[in-house]
Structure formats: C-alpha cells, structure tokens
Amino acid sequence: MRRRIAIIGGGAAAAVLLCELLEQPTPRPLHVDWYTGGQHPARGVAYGTASSHHLLNVRAASMGLFDGRRHGFLEFAQRRAPRTAGTDFLPRSWYGDYLQQEVAAALAQGERHGHDAHVIPFAVDSLVPEREGLSVMHGETSHRADAAVLALGALPPRPLPEVGAAALASGRYVVDPWKFLGEPAPSGQPPQDVVLIGMGLTALDVLLELAERWPQTRFIALSRHGLLPEAHLRQATAPSDDGAGLIEAMRDAPDIRQWMRLLREAAAQEPDWRTVIDGLRPHVPALWRDLPMAQRARFLRHANWAWQRVRHRMPPALQEQVSALERDGRLRRLRARVRAVDVAGDVAGDVAGDVAGDVAGDARRLTVEVAGQPQRLDAGLVIQATGLDTDVRPTAHRLVSQLLTNLHITPDPLGLGMMAEADGRLLRDGDAWPHLFVIGSLLRGTLWESTAIPEIRQQARRLAGRLRGN
Ligand SMILES: Cc1cc2nc3c(=O)[nH]c(=O)nc-3n(C[C@H](O)[C@H](O)[C@H](O)COP(=O)(O)OP(=O)(O)OC[C@H]3O[C@@H](n4cnc5c(N)ncnc54)[C@H](O)[C@@H]3O)c2cc1C
Question: Ligand 1 centroid vs 243 CA: distance in angstroms?
Fold first, then answer.
C-alpha cells in the first residue's frame, strides 16, 4: 500500500517539497495529494507576478532548488537569455516559470518511480489529526493521509487597527497589495495621490508597478523610521573570515543589545557590512532557538525594523528606479506612524463598494502622526504594504482557525506562526505530532529565518527525507 502524503499550499515551498518527494524511488511508493488552493500553483504570492519590475532579491546563482543542481535556476535563465550572470537579480516571473518546469519534470519522474501524485486545485478547509494518520477536508470531500504538511506561506493580510470601517468599506483602502496588483486595473481616472503604508520590498514593488501604470500619480510612502531598505552591491563580495568568532560571541551572550554591539563591531572590520549579515544567515536559526523569549520580544520591538532593512535588501536596479522617482518629485518619504485612516468629509456612504478608479477629485484623508504633531494627508488611494503577517491568533484563514479552535496547534506567543520543532513537526500542548508538519513562514517562531528560497529548500529536503523514510 502506498504511503499517503498531503501537501497543503500552492506556493514555492509546497512545490519544492513535492519535487523532493517524487525525485527518488522509495520501498513503499508514495501517494501525494497536493492541495494548491487554486491560484498560480507553484508560483504562489511571490512568483505569481507578471511584472518586469518585480525582481528577485536573491542573486540568480543562489536560487537553484536542488543540492545536486545548485545552479539550476541560473542555467534555466541562461537558456532564455544567454548573457545572464550568476550575480544578476532576475524577474520573479522567470522564477515562477522555473518552478513550474521543475514541478512538471518531478511529476513525470515520480510516475516513473511508481509514485502517484494528484494536483487538487482546492483549498483545504479543515484537518483532523488522529492516532493513525489524518483526515483532510475540502468542501464536502474528505481524504485520508498518513502525514500532512502545511505550506501555507504567510497569512492573508489584516487591516491595521487604525483603519476606520468607512475607509475599509470605501474600496480606497487596499489591505492586500498583491491581490490589488493582480486584479485588472480599475477603469476611470487614476488617483492623483497614493499613500503607501510601509517602506519595505513589498511597498517598493507596489510603488514601481503603479508609478508606471499611472504616470501622473504622486506617492507618499511612510514608515516609523522613514528609511528605505538597503541595496545589494552590483557584485557579490566575500567576507574576510568565516565569522566563527562573531557567532561564538553571539552564542555566549544571548542578549539583543549585545548582539547589536557585536554586529556593529564586526561590520566595522569588514570592507562591506553586507558580508557580515550574509555570513550570519545560516546560523540564525540556532541563535534564535537559544534566545530567551523576552529577548526575542525585545528584538521585535526595537531591532527588527533595522534587521529587515539590512537583511532584505533591494537589487541595485530597483534602488535606481526608486531614487529617480524621488528626484522627479513623484515619491515623498515620511517618517511617521499612522494614527487613523478615515474617509474625508461626509462621502463615506457615496463611495461604498467603489474601487480606486475615479478618485482624483475626491479628498480622502489619512491622518498621520508625525513627531507628536498630527498631520493630515489626503490621498485617492491608501495601500497597506506592511509585510508578512504570521500571527495565527487573530487570523481569518479558515484552516488555521479550525486547527487553533480544535487545539491541534499552538500559536507562537510572539505572533510568529505556529509552535513547532526545528524539523517542522507541529506542537500541541508541548508534544510534537508525529505526522503533522509546517514549512516556510509559519515556522518563524522556531527558526526566525524561514521565508526565502535558500531556507525553504533546505527545510523541504530534510522534510522529504523524513516523510519518505517513515
Ligand atoms: C513579494 C515577495 C517577494 C519575494 N521575493 C523573494 C526572492 O526574491 N527570493 C526569495 O528567496 N524569497 C522571496 N520571497 C519569499 C517567499 O515568501 C518565498 O520565496 C516563497 O515564495 C514562499 O513560498 P510559500 O509556498 O511558503 O508561500 P506562498 O508563496 O505564500 O504560497 C502559499 C500558498 O498556499 C496557498 N494556501 C493557503 N492556504 C491554503 C489552504 N488551506 N489550502 C491550499 N492552499 C492554501 C496560498 O493561496 C498560497 O498560494 C518573496 C516573498 C514575497 C511575498
């Protein structure tokens, strides 16, 4: 009898896991049900974009999926554009194409090995772990599995608590920027002014796409510190040592203030600080695991914003485009915290259900607190681009809510996904399920560094080994 495995989630993490599972023959062949949720199978949120402005923030040479073919993505890209270099930052849509190609090859390979894989284009609504295996439900249909893996990515974004009900109902406040960009452009006049809440890579993707779509529109981007992400250098640089001294010192002093000091000192020793951050990356999960919960909370409060800027850097081409928008006066950056978002005047009722097409003449108001002084920004459209949400406690995600309500999973106390062992086994009441796993962003509480392809492919490889071996 085949071993039945359910992979739940339609993005890159699920795709890599599927490929790893089907790649080899196993003594007991596999039956894999891949529940993709119906949208962009394999591409997910990050690689479902068609925009040429949306670039990978990792160099082509580091985006290969498999150990045996480290440069698989680079070779794929070079077949398409022979002059592509390993240091290039390529369009994310190319990566989506690469993922789809690898999935198609894995499905064919799996068949040759006697595995049986099914792509099921539905979202899983609920999941019931039992002593022997699990039941996986979508709609009225239920399937049995011996093991299941949640590869859900981040959670659907929630509106900031400062956003008023009328603003939400107006259709002029965008909670999910990716959904907004993926939908057909609204008809009518583009907005004159757009406010972007957030200044990370998501905000910049939105900015560049809309700046091209709406050449007359001006943008205000605001964030707590008013700073853009740092940029990659054109060429990759190598650190002058292996960083072992830094890692050891950090391990000896699991304290955020000490870590910041150590990082500053290490960066001062290097010709370029980026090598320190990049050298630290493989060690982050182990360091994070040993960091006391109070220190993790301290990191999130005080240091996370700075870490995000240096860790999630923008490609040089993106930096040039953003600088050009600033020079042309189309982008203004503001150091500010949102206090309230409301519909201006008494027009709330008039615009309910409308979309952001014909808003040029209407004043829409975003109230922003700047250094204690209230300031009001009027915008035809406000877009929330505040990064990945991994807090499972308040989520409207159906499957996650069901798992929480039935006490099958335990939320990370800091809102960083679900509590799990480092190998992805989900925890309930401190005990690990033997057959229920999570991969990707919802493992941030356990590993912190658990969102990008270089980490996800390692998780997928280890998990596939475990699932095949049982
Ligand atoms: C805009 C953006 C750009 C990025 N750029 C890079 C980059 O350049 N390099 C890099 O390494 N990383 C990048 N990342 C990180 C990225 O998160 C990972 O590379 C990877 O795409 C994550 O894949 P995932 O499968 O975990 O999540 P996702 O891509 O979010 O996929 C999860 C999928 O699961 C589906 N799903 C959810 N619930 C269910 C359910 N109940 N049943 C079935 N399906 C469900 C969702 O609809 C979604 O399609 C980027 C992320 C974003 C958001």
Answer: 30
Q: Which residues line ligand 1 (CB under 6 A)?
A: 8-14, 35-37, 39, 44-46, 56-58, 123-124, 151-154, 202, 205, 399, 440-441, 451-453, 456
Burial of 127 (0-12, 13-18, 19+ CB in 10 A): buried
Residue 457: CB partners within 8 Å, gap ≥ 6?
A: 16, 65, 66
Atom 20 of ligand 1 has which residue's CA nearest to it?
12
Q: What is the pLDDT averaged over residues 175-193?
A: 87
Give 10-47 pLDDT, tens digit per residue.
999 999 999 999 999 999 999 999 999 987 789 998 99
Average pLDDT across the chain, whole number:
91
How many angstroms does the Cα of residue 361 sit away from the middle of ligand 1? 37
Residue from 7, 45, 453 whose mutation best tests the ligand 1 pocket (most atoms within 8 A of CB) = 45
What distances in angstroms separate CA 397 from CA 139, 209, 370, 403, 445, one per listed residue? 15, 28, 34, 10, 18
pLDDT, residue 372, reads 52
For 50-95, write each residue's pLDDT tens digit: 999 999 999 999 999 998 888 999 999 999 999 999 999 999 999 9
Nearest atom (ligand 1) to Cα of 439 = 26
For ligand 1, the distance from its centroid to the CA atom of residue 402, given in whole angstroms, is 21
Q: Which atom of ligand 1 is nearest to the CA of 89?
A: 8
Res 373: pLDDT? 55
Single-letter residue type at 186: P
Taking Cα atoms as reference points, which of 384, 335, 443, 425 lies closest to residue 13? 443
Instruction: Tell how far the Cα of 44 is from the centroid of ligand 1, in angstroms.
Output: 5
The pLDDT assigned to 166 comes to 87
Per-residue burial over 208-217, b if 16 or more Cβ lie within 10 Å, else e, is bbbbeebeeb
Domains of the chain: 3-155+389-469 (3.50.50.60), 165-230+313-384 (3.50.50.60), 244-302 (no CATH)
pLDDT digits (tens, 9 = 90+) for 89-119: 999 999 999 999 999 999 999 999 999 999 9
> Which pLDDT score is estimated for 345?
65
Question: How much distance in Å is there from the Cα of 441 to the middle of ligand 1?
Answer: 8
Residue nearest to atom 8 of ligand 1 (CA): 56
